[in-house]
Amino acid sequence: MTTPAIRIQHLTKDFSVGIRGIKLRAVDDLCLEVGNNEIFGLLGPNGSGKSTTIKVILGLLEASTGSCEIYGKPSKQVAARRSVGFLPEAPYFYRYLTGHELVRYYARICMVPRSEIDRAVDSVIELVGMTEAAHRRVGTYSKGMLQRIGLAQSLVHDPQLVILDEPTAGVDPLGSAGIAEIVRELKRRGKTVLLSSHLLAQIEGLCDRVAILHRGKLVQEGRVDELVEAKDAESLVVEGLSPEGRAAVEATIEAQGGRLARVEKPRLSLDAYFLKEVQQRESEHAKKVRGGESL
Amino acid sequence: MSPLDFCTRIRLIAGTTFLEAVRQKFFNSLLLISIALVGSSTFFQQFDFGAGELKFITDFGFGALFFFGSILSITATTQLFFNEIENRTALTMLAKPVYKLEFLAGKFLGAQLLMFCFTLVITLVLSGILYWRESALLDRLGDEVSLDGPLIRYGDVFLFGFLQWLKFGILAAITLFVASFSNTNLYTIVVSFFVLVICQLQYIARDAYSGMEAGWERLLVFGLGLIFPNFQLFNIGDQLVFDVEKALPASTVLQITCYGLIYAVVFILLAQVNFRRREI
Q: Which residues 75-94 of B are in CB contact (within 8 Å) with A?
């Protein structure tokens, strides 16, 4: 049996509030396992305990009770964090460094061997699509670029587990799609990704499994398809059906004991429609630029 | 993890802390004000109540170094610590395989590097002015006085600077300790200044202690004298610079250095105990 990337058992985290030390429970008896090479979504509204759970996983907070392990090592041990990369929500970095210097700095902090630093830095910068902007100061970056360079710093020491806290918060749909593509690429490279978000539409097509938290408690956990599919209904998508044919289908359904609940046109999500339109124009623009350069 | 890795990470964190610090307008403003004040000391001699010109300039320079250095040490350490917490760069850093002690030690060394630059610049400016005035004085007096050597021991000006830098180190460590349990910049700064005043006046407690009879009061004063470092030990400028007959023995300098280092290390370790429990 392989060791899971993350194993959380009966995790409870209380905070003392005010002078009288009133207990506020942020996470309540949480049990969770994240398997290897999985994209796992931690979902929930604000204040549901997602960030607290992540902080306990990263050893930044100590659990009140319960335990948390990363690849079998207690998460509060510094050694456990060698195999973890982390991108915080709305990351802020030293503004006077260039993107390249920043990633290099974190590579050195993570003790990437000197002989491998240049290759590691260039490789992650290329992965997140920041090669052209890597020599600009971080202070000049847009929010999407900050997220990308943040991703690069989290990956530079080649961690097996990557934790992303609200990676697409405040990023436009195009940027979000780019980040989602990087996450998929990480999975292809055999990494495990844990991401927290409340932007459910973006998570839906990305995660293998999700857990939903509410007021610190685990409400649901499972594969996305299993959780969202309607168990008692099926849909048929039909093209080129005449009115007579449709009447015949409806009659057959009734004859077989079924009931036609509704008939509707298949829809693209607004997210997907937006991406299709913008990406099409982006590729046309890129072709024009390339054409202009070749002239 | 090897001790070499431990040192490398501390050095890297100290490096960025120092770069952050020198980019702060506050540091540059305070440095310029201090240089201007030390540089202008020669024009303030109408306030010289009979003491010699060189002595006045030295006292003025040492006073400026202590006053502005203390302000800079406390405010810069506070700001450098809270910037990391508020901007959440600490979150990114501590999510890496980095010990909290490494983070605090890096912050401390970065702040101390800043104080080293400040102390060095002020000491250089002060030495330059002293040399200029000493040369002018000797030219004016000519053969009226016969001297075996220079009026001032310049090496001791730098030795005084070094001792002040050590004192700033204890102050920075105390500030880090206060910051480790405090939630705001202001609280940290106010409490640290309060501790600075106690440490400056700690000798009064020591005097009281020596005159007390055995009992719980004596024990209390003794305890307080142990908790708060005695900053008067570092204020030996007059003896250093002018008393040509009695140079400060190297063993005394070494003792003061050890005294300073022990307090700085103890306060950083105490800060780490608090910081481990702190939510970031």
A: 87-89, 91-94
A105 interaction partners in chain B (CB closer than 8 Å): 12, 16
Chain A residues inside the 8 Å CB shell of B5? 111
Q: How many helices (H) and strands (E) does chain B have?
A: 11, 0
Do B125 and B33 contact (CB within 8 A), yes or no? no
- Cβ-contact A208, A223 below 8 angstroms: yes
Coil vs helix vs strand at A265: coil
> pLDDT for A278-295, tens place per residue?
777 778 877 887 776 655
Q: Is A93 on the interface with B (CB under 8 A)?
A: yes
Q: Which domain holds residue B194?
A: 3-277
DSSP run (H or E) holding A17: strand A6-17
Percent of chain A with pLDDT over 70: 96
3-class state of residue A185 by DSSP = helix
Is residue A10 left, alpha or beta, with left meaning phi > 0 and alpha meaning psi from -120 to 50?
Answer: left
**Distant-in-sequence contacts of B223-230, Cβ < 8 A, 24+ apart:** B228/B195, B228/B198, B228/B199, B228/B202, B229/B170, B229/B199, B229/B202, B229/B259, B229/B260, B229/B263, B230/B199, B230/B202, B230/B203, B230/B206
Cβ-contact A6, A161 below 8 angstroms = yes
Going along chain A from its start, the domains and CATH numbers come out as 6-228 (3.40.50.300), 232-295 (no CATH)
Cα B259 from Cα B158, distance rounded (Å): 19
User: B162-178: buried (b, 16+ CB within 10 Å) or exposed (e) per residue?
Assistant: bbbbbbbbbbbbbbbbb
Q: How many CB atoms lie within 10 A of CB A11?
A: 24
Provide the domain count of chain B: 1
The tokens describing A87, both together, are: 């991108």
Chains A and B: how many Cβ contacts under 8 Å?
68
Distance CA B106, CA B12 (A): 7
Asked if the Cβ–Cβ distance from B92 to A61 is below 8 Å, we say: no
Closest CA to B98 of B10, B4, B176, B2: B10
Whether this model's pTM surpasses 0.80:
yes
Q: How far apart are CA B247 and CA B14, in angstroms?
A: 35
Question: What is the side-by-side order of every strand in the sheet holding A209-214?
Answer: A84-87, A161-165, A192-197, A39-43, A209-214, A217-223
Residue A1 — very low, low, confident or very high, per pLDDT cuts 50/70/90? low
Alpha-carbon distance A88 to nearest alpha carbon in chain B (angstroms): 7
Q: Does A153 touch chain B (CB under 8 A)?
A: yes
Element (H, E) at A9: strand A6-17
Beta strands in A191-268 (DSSP E): 192-197, 209-214, 217-223
The tens digit of pLDDT for each residue in A119-135 reads 999 999 999 999 999 99
Per-residue pLDDT tens for A15-28? 888 777 788 899 99
φ, ψ at A63 (rounded to 5°): -70, 145
CA A47/CA A27 separation, integer angstroms:
10
